[in-house]
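Re: the multi-chain job from yesterday

Posting the exact lines I submitted so nobody has to dig through the queue logs.
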Amino acid sequence: MALFTPVSRIGPTINLCQQNPAQHVNQVTTDTDTSIVPEHLQLVFERGCKHLKGEQVEEFKKFILKNQNCFARPGEVGRTHLWIHKIKLKDEKPVREPPTSRRIPMFKRQAVEEEVKKLEERGLIENGFLIGQDDSVSGETSKIKRGRKPNRPKQAKQIPQSDTDLTLEVIRDKQESDSILKQILKYKIEGRKPDWGEISSESVHLKYWLARWESIDLKNGILCMYWDDDTKKGRWKICAPNSIEKTILWYLHDTKTAGHLGIKKTYEKAKLSPFYWRNMQESIKNYVNQCEICGERKNPPNKKRHCMKSYVVGDPFERIATDIAGPFPITDNKNRYILVVGDYFPKLTEAYAMPDIQAKTFANIIFRA
Ligand SMILES: [Zn+2]
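And the result, structure tokens for all chains:
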């Protein structure tokens, strides 16, 4: 049974908004004679009575008369209080859709742009602005933002390349001016390994290199060390002085081709590089951890969690759980907090008032309970 007259019967000339302002069902005037089925409901009544008998027809007639205001009269739309449509018209955000559904085929774009232009001219829609466009530049702050939020602008800046060129001459000079390596150089040129007594008061750094005396040699006037990596493919590596460590690390981690790799991969690259220095792995770790660009762009590593499981207890007070709620307004007894104690075994939960959350107060309550 149709409760409303189809719109096609009303005719195309009716403006629903202007000619029929919204009116609550209770405010609609009713026919004075309620015993006769109104003319516009005759058809509905006759159709409905086809399968009804005696009293049912009377009941149906009463129903129709009672609810006649729900049916449309000729030339108007029927109203009901049973359903209310809410249409939001002001300051509503547009519905977000995934980008795939907004993508328009190339051959349809011109037609879409024309349609959009027409709607804009009629004032039905207003222009938004592209994602990521700067508000202050475009002056479009009052207009609707479409799509997802633009990414937060990056603050960290690329570390500029060092002025130091890692040529053989530069490296030789840096080694000769390095407080530790220049001593090793001197010993190597003299061809004698100092006694332990001679260097016992020296730094650990010097002892580190002297401990590798057999592996160290001069190549073209540069101090090099024969280094065996895990693959057992030994190679000569330049003993890098402290002053060029940062430059080497910059080349390993910060250049555009380096790509800000993590600690492990940067160390793997360092192993393939022609340089070696004491605590190389540690200094790479510190350098990467302190890199602002990495810190800003990369998410922290996913911490693996163990599966949850039930904790089985066999006796009261074998395991308890506590929590403190508050602070609340101070009571007459000067209490501000509530200590909640739950016993895992009987599932008994009790609450105690606490004046403060000091460990002493907590312990007193727990041991007295
Ligand atoms: Zn980085």
